[in-house]
Amino acid sequence: MMNLLEHDNILPNSLAESVLYSMRAGGKRLRPILMRAAFESFGGRGDKVLPVAAALEMVHTYSLIHDDLPAMDDDDYRRGQLTNHKKFGEATAILAGDALLTRSFSVIGQAVGIQPEEKVYLMSYLSEAAGPTGMIAGQTLDMEAEDKESTLDQLEQIHNLKTGKLLTYAIVAGAYLAGVKPETLDLMKQFGTYIGLIFQVQDDILDVTGDASVLGKPVGSDEENKKSTYPKLLGLDGAKAQMDKYVNLAHQCLEQAEIKDSRLHELTVYLSRRTS
Amino acid sequence: MMNLLEHDNILPNSLAESVLYSMRAGGKRLRPILMRAAFESFGGRGDKVLPVAAALEMVHTYSLIHDDLPAMDDDDYRRGQLTNHKKFGEATAILAGDALLTRSFSVIGQAVGIQPEEKVYLMSYLSEAAGPTGMIAGQTLDMEAEDKESTLDQLEQIHNLKTGKLLTYAIVAGAYLAGVKPETLDLMKQFGTYIGLIFQVQDDILDVTGDASVLGKPVGSDEENKKSTYPKLLGLDGAKAQMDKYVNLAHQCLEQAEIKDSRLHELTVYLSRRTS
């Protein structure tokens, strides 16, 4: 009784192990890279973005853990290693995802060197981008679209929500922390949307033309799952032409935002040509 | 392409239906009631607590949806109706839980009439109370304790984390929004811990002596699940004596905090005598 408040904060080993397993699985760290690039492209300097980038990567990792669950995509491998639930069991995987999502907000809330108004903006926007009108809406629509023919417009909507929202968050948060004007923030939101679509078209193309050993996951799964994809709707050449359109529109956003630094341009090209 | 940003925010019907099903299932609304009582006991007036109370109830509801999942407690009924996954399927239930948890933070972030510093405190503290060193730690330890004998100290630790953290949040958030001193906040944290334990002892007692039709869930499930409980460790009379201890300690906290209003005293007594 006397020590009731002593065992106040406990991080159980099994939970820590499961969370760290997925956080350390690697991946491209694309969202942190985009956030830092956006921050520095607008003249931001120092480590102010780091906690926000970590929080975003935590949210991204949680979404992968829950997406892989048997009741969802039922995947056994991710980034070349067993998925979280295959390694630790379903219950721990659900809790590990919940833990990463929940904790991400206090990582921003407790960050040093970010003002309270900025924290409220970044936490609220993360909640929206990842929440039921953002990423979770995309996941829901994606599930409902299985085994159905989708139109190009529906496909864009799903990807914009499911993938685009968090990628856009990375870019907008970086620009916001560098102190850009609201008009520029709107341009970066648009840029983020194109980046999300470029990412997804290339994902679909790689599922047709990619190398499983480079990708770290099997190819041809879209065909197997009867998923609507860009190559299926537009043909492989049509999908590549669609990508070029998105790349041009993304570059236009950056020019309108008057960015001198070339890093976001380079990342746009990288994403359109990536092999993994 | 032109309307890319038009379908920016979508809340799919199926997701909304699943989320609202669980939010509207009722329950005691204990956490909102405690938050408002704490707020008004310290002289708070107006509706400032409402969005924070709603956010907390959302987090509580998410935790019930995920706890009921087949991989976790595998429950078919909750509050006298089918559990979320029984009604909407497992995938939607996982997403509904994720949606409630994620959205809760922007409900606080977008609240009117709360200062940015207050919002950062309330959002960060919610993340801690519900996260991997709070409620999720409790859930993990509870799973690991299944089919094992626990000591009274271990039992207290699990309940303090799993149930106590969110109940304490309710009380501390209410007191905080009323503008109390840090020392008083510490006293209310202690009070919240006792409230959590009182809640749990009575839960255990009701599982032995309660009426399933009043409770809205079956009794005797602890015995069936071989769970360690207060009556099992201390006997039924011992459990009741333990509760009286907690009730006295809770009242002492309120007296030290110099609360004139009797509502928190009354709620303490109610929780120790509740039949559902």
List the helices and strands of chain A in order.
HHHEEHHHHHHHHHH
Biggest protein-protein contact in the assembly: A-B, 66 and 66 residues
Q: Oligomeric form of this entry?
A: homodimer
Q: Kindly name the structural category of chain A.
A: mainly alpha
How are the secondary structure elements laid out?
Two copies of one chain form a homodimer.
Chain A: H1 13-23, H2 30-41, H3 50-67, E1 77-78, E2 81-82, H4 84-88, H5 90-109, H6 116-130, H7 135-144, H8 152-177, H9 182-209, H10 212-215, H11 221-224, H12 230-256, H13 263-273
Antiparallel strand pairs in A: 1-2
Helix pairs in contact in A: 1-5, 2-3, 2-8, 3-5, 3-8, 6-8, 7-8, 8-9, 9-12, 9-13, 12-13
Keywords (chains A, B): Isoprene biosynthesis, Magnesium, Metal-binding, Transferase
Family (chains A, B): Belongs to the FPP/GGPP synthase family.
Cofactor (chains A, B): Mg(2+)
Explain the overall architecture.
The structure is a homodimer of 276-residue chains. Chain A is mainly α and 276 residues long. The first copy, chain A, is built from 13 helices and two strands; from the N terminus they run H-H-H-E-E-H-H-H-H-H-H-H-H-H-H. Chain A has one domain: Farnesyl Diphosphate Synthase (Orthogonal Bundle), CATH 1.10.600.10. Chain A has a two-stranded antiparallel ribbon. In chain A, a hairpin with a 2-residue loop joins strand 1 and strand 2. Chain A starts with 12 loop residues before the first helix and ends with a helix.
Quick overview:
2 copies of one chain form a homodimer. Chain A is mostly helical and 276 residues long.
